[in-house]
Amino acid sequence: MIDPTISGISSASGVPAEAVVPPVRRPVAATLRALIALAAATGITIDLITGSPLRVLSYFTIQSNLLVAVVLGLSARRAWRGHRPLPPWVTGGTLLCIATTGLVYHLVLANGPGGFSMTGDATSMAGWHSYANQLLHTVTPIGVTLDWLLLTRPGGLRPRHAALWLLYPAAYLAFTLTRGALLPPASPARYPYPFLDVDAHGYPGILGNALTFGVAIYALALLIIAMDRTRPEPRGPENRISSQAAGPLK
Asked: DSSP of 62-117, one letter per residue?
């Protein structure tokens, strides 16, 4: 009788023995991702406590950081336990959303007249609000970018993912315009961002702004995909097995 172990077949699962690989824990990746998720959750909590929850939750900043908290939290758990990473299109889409948040804030909103606040009061840039802004607009975008560049395997993204990722910004635009149309004109932060303010720009102006941002986000998505195809593969004992790209274990 042939020993299934010798024959290369696992008697428990019926798969080749060489394919049954013990999980490889990645404590460094798990710790970094847990800290990024904690930063996002902390910034969101501060804004929810110090502002109107329904108003705060209407911001793209908060929604993209909620995505970071969930995705990086799950990724941290998987890395700690040695499980397979989340699909590349999930982590890549998360990077696109939070990178958009950081870039729009620093390049457009922070330099606008009077700055930008998600709470609307005159002291929003001081104290706890300032900490929340730094966490949500600077710390999490940089953290997610570093995690993606340094701790994930390249090659899992495809050009079709860029169009897929645009569905969320498009849905957010529809949500924002519908919410603004339903709220009374005197409602504070009826439109969460000045470039989406129908009262100030009219619907033709909003459409122009939306197309401009849409093209910019799509270009950023294509850049992320191009970088994924050309960036070097992370090296080190933590990365020798887990991969975000489809393919055989290495």
From this structure: HHHHHHHHHHHHHHHHHHHHTPPPPPHHHHHHHHHHHHHHHHHIIIIITTSTT---
pLDDT in tens, 22-33: 678 899 999 999
Assigned domain for 243 exists: no
Segment 150-191, tens digit of pLDDT:
999 999 999 999 999 999 999 999 999 999 999 998 888 899
Q: How many residues does the chain have?
A: 250
The values of phi and psi at residue 65, to 5°, are -75, -30
**For residue 240, is it within any domain?**
no
In a domain, 238, yes or no: no
Its pTM stands at 0.82
Name the domain count of the chain. Answer: 1
- The domain of 212 spans 25-233
Q: What span, in angstroms and rounded, lies between the C-alpha atoms of 63 and 94?
A: 11
Task: For residue 173, tell me if it sits in a domain.
Answer: yes
Q: What angle do CA 147, 139, 94 make, to 5 degrees?
A: 50
Whole-Å CA distances, 234 to 147, 152, 230, 238: 11, 7, 12, 9
Beta strands in 107-163 (DSSP E): none
- Collapsed DSSP state (helix, strand, coil) of residue 60: helix
H/E stretch holding 175: helix 167-182
Tell me what pLDDT residue 243 has.
Answer: 43
